[in-house]
Design goal:
Blueprint (H helix, E strand, L loop, with lengths): L15 H21 L4 H12 L1 H9 L2 H11 L4 E6 L2 H17 L2 E6 L16 E6 L5 H12 L4 E7 L11 E5 L8 H18 L18
Parallel strand pairs: 1-2, 1-3, 3-4, 4-5
Helix pairs in contact: 1-2, 3-7, 4-7, 5-7
Length: 222
């Protein structure tokens, strides 16, 4: 058992506990890497130093709160939203899609970018909102290809990316920028705009953010 010491979570749909658990998993991964000999002590210290920078980077992301709020107001009438990402970005969009379902009651699905053309793209039509994550430099080109594919079919694309990504209005409709960081840690930052987007869409749709319908903090039945 590993205590995260995240403090009380008022809302049923957790946010800070999620972030705390993610940070804890980074540290578990470092210990495992040291035990397996796939990371040196110097590399482990450097990685942990990067983990310690996350609170400062998170504060910078939260400075863009009003920007995300405006985008939520723009897109709050959507009834179907799709999230796409690759590698670590795919893990983050799964959480982002879950949050949107939980607190705004909007139908949303998350897909790995590489699976887009194996069926999900058939669901894209004029005006469909696609939220794309591009925070892994090695996969930027492939993510752009996914974005272009859904744009060609009439989707509106909201891109969350970092300072390394060159994007303009021809690639997507709206962009939310997050700070650069180690790609392995990017989910700790990219999830924040997605959580905020879900929160504000829920607010604009008149939902009870802290107590979503049909959900409970603890599951007592199998």
């Amino acid at each position: 058992m590993l205590y995260t010491w995240a403090g009380p979570e008022i809302a049923v749909a957790t946010t800070k506990a999620y972030s705390a658990q993610l940070a804890a998993m980074y540290l578990i991964a470092v210990r495992a890497a040291l035990a397996r000999g796939t990371m040196t002590e110097e590399q482990a210290k450097a990685f942990c130093a990067e983990v310690r920078t996350l609170p400062t980077l998170i504060e910078k992301v939260l400075e863009g709160d009003e920007r995300v709020k405006a985008l939520a107001q723009k897109y709050c009438d959507k009834e179907n939203v799709f999230f796409i990402g690759r590698a670590v970005d795919y893990a983050a969009v799964q959480e982002g899609s879950l949050k949107l379902k939980e607190i705004s009651y909007v139908h949303s699905e998350a897909y790995a970018g590489g699976e887009l053309k194996h069926g999900p793209i058939s669901l894209i039509e004029d005006g469909t909102l696609v939220v794309a994550l591009a925070c892994t430099p090695a996969l930027y080109e492939k993510t752009v290809s996914n974005i272009q594919a859904v744009k060609a079919r009439g989707a509106q694309v909201l891109l969350v990316t970092n300072g390394d990504f060159a994007a303009d209005g021809e690639v997507c409709d709206d962009i939310v920028w997050i700070p650069r960081c180690n790609p392995t840690l990017s989910a700790s930052l990219s999830i924040l705009p997605l959580q905020l987007l879900s929160y504000y869409i829920g607010v604009f749709r008149g939902c009870d953010i802290d107590k979503p319908r049909n959900l409970a903090k603890s599951v007592t039945v199998e």
